[in-house]
TrEMBL record:
Matching SMART domains: 7TM_GPCR_Srsx
Cellular component terms (Gene Ontology): plasma membrane
Entry GO MF terms: G protein-coupled serotonin receptor activity
Species in which this protein is naturally found: Schistosoma curassoni
Key word Transmembrane helix present: yes
Gene3D superfamilies per the UniProt record, alphabetical: Rhodopsin 7-helix transmembrane proteins (1.20.1070.10)
Organism classification: Eukaryota, Metazoa, Spiralia, Lophotrochozoa, Platyhelminthes
Protein name: G_PROTEIN_RECEP_F1_2 domain-containing protein
Superkingdom to which the source organism belongs: Eukaryota
Annotated membrane topology: Multi-pass membrane protein
Intracellular or extracellular location(s): Cell membrane
Xref: PROSITE patterns: G_PROTEIN_RECEP_F1_1, G_PROTEIN_RECEP_F1_2
Annotated family: Belongs to the G-protein coupled receptor 1 family.
Transmembrane segment boundaries: 17-42, 54-73, 93-113, 134-151, 171-193, 244-277
């Protein structure tokens, strides 16, 4: 008996699980600390407490709650190899997971809308970008996230089996959740960031053309300060666009494989249903 236990605890499988456990724990800690620092920085530094940064706080809060409520339970499930809790905890885990992850994605979508309006309508949108309106936008984000996460608690879920905690495979809910939580926000973000990129390039070309014309004129000196200011502004906008591009790339890299698998699962079910009905 003792020999079998020694063999069990010395297997590569156990060593692998320990490594996975350490890695997932580090990820959880980094998620919590990183997002907590963002929230504290914006909350404590007066200069950062701008309406546009409210969305950043909302995004950080959603990711912070993932680190606090979702990742620890997911780590335990991974280490045990089964769900060690009951049905109630399973329902809460899945609902929190869907809620926080959807809120994170929709917050990114809201940030893209905010950046697009700030760049394309700088004067009009600056007057409308009040704390109250940003709070309404955040409220809408969380409301839509809740609407996507709640259905499994009202029947759209798998029958609970001891040791298993599975996401709903109901085809109607799968289509509703994947479209609402990922594909529609993804399309919106790609369109808006694409238009922002085109606009940034057009502004850069127009500014370069204007600068060349000023250099060739006889009254260059009086006009240099505003050109420098515009150049500085365009450089800042260009950096913002590059940052947004990196965010979009990471977003697609992290989420696209998961939702491609979800869509393939939906297509398989549709094909099976079609074969049965035929």
């Amino acid at each position: 008996m003792n020999k079998s236990k020694e063999l069990l605890f010395s297997t590569p499988f156990v060593n692998t699980m320990i490594i996975i456990g350490i890695f997932l724990t580090i990820c959880s800690i980094c998620t919590i600390i990183g997002n907590l620092l963002v929230v504290l920085a914006i909350g404590l530094v007066k200069k950062l407490r701008t309406p546009s940064n409210f969305l950043i706080v909302s995004l950080a809060v959603s990711d912070l709650l993932v680190g606090l409520l979702v990742q620890p339970l997911a780590t335990l499930r991974e280490l045990y190899g089964y769900w060690p809790f009951g049905e109630g905890m399973c329902d809460m885990f899945i609902s929190f997971d869907v809620l926080m992850c959807t809120a994170s994605i929709l917050n990114l979508c809201a940030i893209s809308i905010d950046r697009y309006l700030a760049i394309t309508r700088p004067l009009r949108y600056a007057a409308k970008r009040t704390p109250k309106r940003m709070m309404i936008m955040i409220l809408i984000v969380w409301l839509f996230s809740a609407l996507i996460s709640i259905p499994p608690m009202f029947g759209f879920k798998e029958p609970f089996v001891t040791g298993l905690c599975e996401y709903s495979s109901n085809i109607i809910y799968q289509i509703y959740a994947t479209c609402g939580a990922f594909y529609i926000p993804l399309i919106v973000m790609l369109i808006l960031y694409g238009r922002i990129l085109i606009l940034a390039r057009n502004m850069a070309h127009a500014d370069a053309k204007q600068q060349r014309s000023l250099v060739s004129s006889n009254w260059v000196c009086p006009k240099l300060p505003p050109v420098k200011k515009r150049n500085s502004r365009h450089q800042n906008e260009s950096k913002a666009v590059k940052t947004l591009g990196i965010i979009m790339g990471c977003f697609c890299l992290c989420w696209l494989p998961f939702f491609i698998i979800a869509v393939s699962f939906i297509l398989k079910i549709i094909i099976i249903i079609g074969i049965i009905l035929y």
